[in-house]
Sequence to fold (178 residues):
Amino acid sequence: MPRRPTRTVPTVLLTGQLAEGDWPAWLAAELTAAGRTVRHRALTEPDPAQLTATLADLPPDGFDVVAHSVGCLAWLRHAHSAAVGPRPARVALVAPPAGYGPVALDVDAVRRAADGTVLVGSDNDLACPAGVAAEYGAPLKMATTVVTGAGSFTAADGYGPWPAVLDWCGRDNLAFRA
Fold:
């Protein structure tokens, strides 16, 4: 029997458009089954204005954000814009892509936007050919969890069910264990 997550705060999922079987839908179902509140926002572009309604009425420092792909860029732009809204306790940025136009990688803005942020990427993500550590980790002065061979973390890359992200959502600390 799978371990029921112990963390009970709401989770906001920020994603691009999903393909059949991608892990964010699986994660939402797992968290919901465990009694967690989940808000999912699928984005077609990294427009931080789209986050306003998604984040509305959440308790400050009382929710987590898990962003994937274009959702990572929307979060980074949201952090840079200093938009009014509640501040999450933790943020996980998974497989942020390169090439969507300029994204301000402001260390201080990202640190102010949440109590803690973790960066997760792959060593072979075609959407981020320079590598997640070089493209985002170094400029943001952020430790990066690099998962070997994970591509863009899609179902096509073998990431339908993804126990590591469910584990992160169920723990209170920031570290991501791949």
In short: Residues 11-170 form a domain with the Rossmann fold fold (CATH 3.40.50.1820). Residues 27 and 125 are 21 Å apart (CA to CA).
